[in-house]
Amino acid sequence: MVRKKFWRITKTILKICITAAALYWVFSKVESDYNARVIEDIDVDSNEVPLSFLQFIKQAIMGSNPFFLVLAFFAYCSSIMIASSRLNSFFSGMGLKLSERYNFKLYLLGLFYNLFLPGGVGGDGYKIYFLRRKFKVKGRRLLSAVFFDRLSGLWALSLIISTLVIFIPRLQIPNEIPIIAVALGSIAYYIVLRRYFTTYSQHFIITHFKALGVQSMQVVCAILLLYALGFQGKFSPYLFMFLLSSLVAVIPFTVGGLGAREMVYVYGAQYFQMDTQLAVLISLLFYLTSAALAVFGSYFIFRPQGLGEDKLPTNEEVEMDMTDEREEND
Asked: Which of 9, 104, 272, 282 could lock 237 by a disulfide, CB 3.0 to 4.6 Å apart?
């Protein structure tokens, strides 16, 4: 028991430290480049002093267009609503019938756990435990539904990235390659799903159409954030890096992908000769947008009656239960 608690605390501390270190590197790198560029532009006889990157962020956000920021928030909300419905389609495929409203509430709670509680089992693990306990469903079946939900999102992400490759000549990738790769990959993916996971293949079209909807609305969110900052250049490199950073953010080494996304943007900005400050700013704004929605999930921690419960299980209870289940299965 003590060892498990120690390891859980250690994982949390490590995740926070990695996030802090990544952000420190990003901010140091961007601020150095920013100041070097500003100093070149400042007249020798001028008393103007270059801003720090944090001051630049503050000025950029304060000067952004609130109309487009609001639209970006609603675009992100739309993506999450579609994502919740997609997951519910997988639950329905395995025989678990939940109302879209109830599932969305639980989805919001999972978002809150993913972004604001870096330790423990995360939002997906919490949902699996909660549904298994409440509806007496086997944990492995729930885990498989969540896994294929994530896999469908990865497929949609890969499809949109491959499409953007066609519009970025700098990559020097023949158009036929991404088209053939996506086509063959999708066919192989469906054949495996149809052969070994018939339950989920029956809803293949609807779930993967929703997966495309999720990623498309998040791309729309990124476009609206660029408009909010007054950007008027070529969007495709920024959107390409946005999608690549989404892939990296899935790796659970940082808090909610914070730090990892920004590192991808810094490297990508150097390769595509993008505005590094703008690229990192878009990433931070997207994180703040997602956090603004995720905070609503905390409502169910203080008012569990919204999920039909008198009290929600703690992170420790969920992790101990999942550990015990793994040991029993082994």
From this structure: 272
- The b-or-e profile of 149-165 (16+ CB within 10 A means b, else e) is bebbbebbbbbbbbebb
Domain boundaries, the chain: 65-321
| pTM of the predicted model as reported, rounded to 2 decimal places | 0.89
SS (H, E, C) 97-152: CCCHHHHHHHHHHHHHHHHHCCCCCHHHHHHHHHHHHHHCCCHHHHHHHHHHHHHH
* Pair 119, 174: CB distance under 8 Å: no
Tokens of 141: 């079946």
- CA atoms lying within 13 Å on the CB side of residue 96: 27
Token pair in block for residue 294: 């995720």
- Eight-class DSSP state of 233: S
Closest CA to 84 of 174, 178, 268, 217: 217
DSSP state of 305: G
Residues 6 or more apart whose CB falls under 8 angstroms from that of 159 comprise: 182, 186, 212
pLDDT tens, position by position, 279-289: 889 988 999 99
Rounded CA gap, 208 and 90, in Å?
11
pLDDT at 44: 46
pLDDT band with cut points at 50, 70 and 90 for residue 325:
low
Nearest to 78 by CA among 293, 291, 297, 238: 293
